[in-house]
Design brief:
The chain is of the alpha/beta class and 479 residues long. Helices cover 34% and strands 21% of the residues. The chain folds into three domains: 166 residues, Response regulator (Rossmann fold, 3-Layer(aba) Sandwich), CATH 3.40.50.2300; 216 residues, Alpha-Beta Horseshoe (pyruvate-formate lyase- activating enzyme), CATH 3.80.30.20; 56 residues, OB fold (Dihydrolipoamide Acetyltransferase, E2P). The protein is built from 14 helices and 21 strands. The strands form six sheets. A six-stranded parallel β-sheet has the order 3-2-4-5-6-7, with helices on both faces. It has a five-stranded mixed beta barrel with strand order 17-18-19-21-20. The protein binds S-adenosyl-L-homocysteine (SAH), iron/sulfur cluster and FE3-S4 cluster.
């Protein structure tokens, strides 16, 4: 492919992606053009989703758009006419998985030259990914990013009829697109986007570059969606954003923040309301009070702390200290007694010493977390931390992760044990992986419970008496 050909594509640029110009957010309305309505007639698709719930929600939109175009979901890769990988860029191993997948899918492309292979999501927003796809992954037909999912019909059309490669990724602050069709993955629990993007710029993190600036969806649109879900019989919604606690801070004509939204949504009467993710710095009293007073807001909070060392927290650009985090946590526990709190922690951040790490261990003990996602720092090209001096050997980082996980796992078990002999309500998710007669579901505190019961209970809320507490799940009997 000549240089000129490569130049014609819209490619991402991390420098542009980090700019915050304070331009107004545009609200667009999706509408499927007539000429796109039958393009997928008798054709099928698959979407493979990686990464966070934000991507899961985006994949439901891609599926919604494709089905509006007439496509149906394929049972196998072999019979698919379109395969889209909705990718994650958060850590190197997440990306390596995708490169492996792209390699594997080459065989399908050889068997069916008409197959459209697409790459979407956060990886598509990275410059070096596009360069690599252009140079060595010639069998990828379509690349689009997180800002232009709504243009999928055009891309599919071009790809199908002109057989050209389509590579279009915008590095912009981002719009809000409404009226998007969705094919949801569940019939009783649903994702609801309340905001997009992130302005925190934690120094290790790629998300602000791949998702654009923080922008909140209008509350009326959120209400419309939640009321509809309630009418359709949904039992649980999870409000989504990279930093839901910053919801509404970008509204110019309205004083309406996350706590207000929670209190108002609680009135709709959908059974369970959850949200993710929160930044400790933006968590306020209004939110805690909404949780305290609400009837449907679940007593569970995922509050990523990342580190217990003030020196490291500062280098991460997290805007809080170990002490202020613990203060906020205690305030939360006072307002919502019995609340279950989980977190995210990174070990081996550049320059993290053994002493820093011990501060993290101390915080974990004091915070009494009931679970955590723990990670070894992964260098993300283009982020500030990628150029921080990092002298800690990989073995030592792994050892820290191991020691940390020991205490985290003890927290999981303690969190489960406190429900022994209690009767809890479980929203039944499905049958256990190991036994068809065992149901699996989650309690209000987000604890996994297995109990004997019939499949017809899937999607309903059942009272279960807890008989045994393991580290990763509870066992019980329906009452
Ligand atoms: N917006 C969310 C988290 C998004 S990413 C929040 O701030 O809570 C999920 C988790 O991945 C982060 O909380 C962090 O612990 C981890 N993470 C992000 N970037 C990372 C990196 N470069 N290396 C290792 N872990 C990382
Ligand atoms: Fe990444 Fe920090 Fe934004 Fe979370 S808050 S998405 S960790 S930059
Ligand atoms: Fe991954 Fe993008 Fe989510 S990087 S964690 S899919 S916002």
């Amino acid at each position: 492919m000549s240089k000129i050909d490569i130049e014609k594509y819209f490619k991402p640029n991390l420098q542009d992606a980090r700019k915050r110009n304070k331009t107004d957010v545009h609200e667009l309305q999706f509408e499927l053009q007539e000429k796109h309505q039958n393009i997928g007639y008798l054709k099928t698709y698959q979407i493979h989703t990686y990464g966070c719930q934000g991507n899961e929600a985006d994949s439901e939109i891609m599926a919604g758009i494709l089905e509006k175009m007439g496509f149906t979901k394929a049972e196998t890769e072999d019979e698919s006419d379109v395969i889209i990988l909705n990718t994650c860029a958060i850590r190197e191993n997440a990306e390596n998985r995708i490169w492996g997948e792209l390699g594997r899918l080459k065989a399908y492309k050889r068997r069916n030259p008409n197959l459209i292979l697409g790459l979407a999501g956060c990886m598509a927003q990275e410059e070096y990914v596009i360069e690599r796809v252009l140079k060595t992954y010639q069998h990828v037909d379509l690349v689009f990013g997180t800002h232009n999912i709504y243009k999928l019909p055009e891309y599919i059309e071009t790809s199908m009829f002109s057989k050209e490669r389509v590579i279009e990724v915008y590095s912009q602050e981002g719009d809000i697109v409404e009226n998007l069709p969705k094919v949801r993955n569940h019939t009783y629990k649903a994702w609801v986007n309340i905001m997009f993007g992130c302005d925190e710029f934690c120094t290790y993190c790629i998300v602000p570059y791949t998702r654009g600036k923080e922008r909140s969806r209008h509350k009326d649109e959120i209400f419309k969606e939640v009321i509809e879900l309630k009418e359709q019989g949904y039992k649980e919604i999870t409000l989504l954003g990279q930093n839901v606690n910053a919801y509404g801070k970008d509204f110019k004509d309205m004083d309406y923040t996350f706590g207000d939204l929670l209190s108002d949504l609680d009135q709709i009467g959908i059974e369970r309301i959850r949200f993710t993710t929160s930044h400790p710095h933006d968590l306020d009293l209004k939110t805690m009070h909404a949780m305290r007073d609400g009837k449907h807001i679940m007593p569970f909070f995922h509050l990523p702390v990342q580190s217990g060392s003030n020196r490291v927290l500062k280098k991460m650009n997290r805007h809080y200290t170990k002490e202020s985090y613990l203060d906020k946590l205690n305030e939360l526990k006072e307002n919502v007694p019995g609340i279950s709190v989980t977190t995210d922690i990174i070990v081996g951040f550049p320059g993290e010493t053994e002493e820093d790490f011990l501060e993290t261990m101390d915080l974990v003990e004091k915070a009494d977390f009931e679970g955590a996602y723990t990670f070894v720092f992964s260098k993300r090209e283009g982020t500030p931390a990628a150029s921080f001096e990092d002298l800690t050997p990989e073995d030592e980082k792994k050892d820290r992760l191991y020691r940390l996980n020991e205490v985290i796992n003890a927290g999981y078990l303690r969190g489960n044990q406190r429900f022994l002999n209690q009767t809890v309500s479980v929203l039944v998710d499905g049958v256990s992986k190991h036994d068809e007669n065992i149901l699996a579901g989650y309690t209000a505190h987000n604890k996994l419970v297995n109990f004997k019961g019939d499949k017809h209970l899937i999607g309903s809320i059942v009272s279960v008496k807890i008989t045994e507490a393991k580290t990763w799940f509870l066992l019980g009997e329906a009452v």
